[in-house]
Write a structure and sequence with these properties.
This protein has helices at residues 9-26, 54-61, 77-85, 98-109, 133-141, 190-215, and strands at 28-32, 43-47, 66-71, 89-91, 113-116, 145-151, 170-175. It has 217 residues and is an alpha/beta fold. It has one domain (9-215): Glycerol-3-phosphate (1)-acyltransferase, CATH 3.40.1130. Helix 5 (133-141) packs across helix 6 (190-215). One of its GO terms (cellular component) is plasma membrane.
Length: 217
């Protein structure tokens, strides 16, 4: 069976340029710590998720083009074709989506950047409940994880459009120090992935707390 094609990095770069224009046009992003992102080689962004704009915001302000794993429900009609065109990955959250897994690993194997919401869906954005997918990709690929905190996107006061933060409001995006998820053994057993998930959760929670202190959120 042939492997699915790796999403286009050129497409993701187009998405980044569109994203930066939209994000800076509609809101006031403040980006901190982008220099921490490795300039080359595979990287996984682990992004907290409390709002619809979190993915586009990170895609727009990140220093490298990003391929996000996005729920398949978003890939409908023209929007679906657009997301595919800008290098984003469709994933079925309710099953073991082997095509999405292969494409995500392909992004990392080719030295690209994979974006993941490790909580699996929108919630409080506090990294309180992580799925094992992030640990699997990190351990399997050996790619470092860069924690990313998006703060202010869930602000409710002053909204003009339901479901979006107030236009021209400040949204902080804080990149943390890259870290390795594995223990160095290369093990990919269920126990090893559970231990990696625990390590990841501690790192992401600490980064989020630090980001809140740093931004005063």
């Amino acid at each position: 069976m042939s492997l699915p094609p790796v999403p286009s990095e050129q497409g993701a770069e187009v998405g980044r340029r569109i994203g930066v224009g939209l994000m800076y046009g509609l809101w006031r992003p403040r980006v901190l710590g982008a220099w921490r992102v490795p300039t080359t080689g595979p990287v996984i962004y682990a992004v907290n998720h409390s709002h619809n704009i979190d993915g586009p915001m990170v895609m727009g302000v990140a220093p490298r083009p990003t391929h996000f794993l996005i729920k398949k429900e978003a890939f409908v009609g023209p929007l679906g074709r657009f997301l595919t065109g800008i290098g984003q990955l469709k994933v079925d959250r309710h099953s073991t989506d082997r095509t999405a897994i292969a494409q995500a690993l392909g992004v990392l194997e080719s030295g690209g950047v994979l974006g993941i919401f490790p909580e699996g869906t929108r919630g409080e954005g506090d990294f309180a409940s992580l799925r094992a997918g992030l640990a699997y990709f990190a351990v399997r690929s050996g790619a470092p994880i860069v924690p990313v905190a998006v703060l202010g996107s869930s602000e409710r006061r002053g909204r003009l459009i339901k479901g979006l933060p107030p236009l021209r409001s400040r949204v902080d995006v804080v990149f943390g120090d890259p870290f390795e998820a594995g223990d160095g053994s290369g093990r990919r057993t269920r126990k090893a992935l559970d231990e990696a998930t625990e390590r990841i959760q501690k790192q992401l929670t600490a980064h989020l707390e630090n980001a809140k202190r740093l931004t005063g959120r």
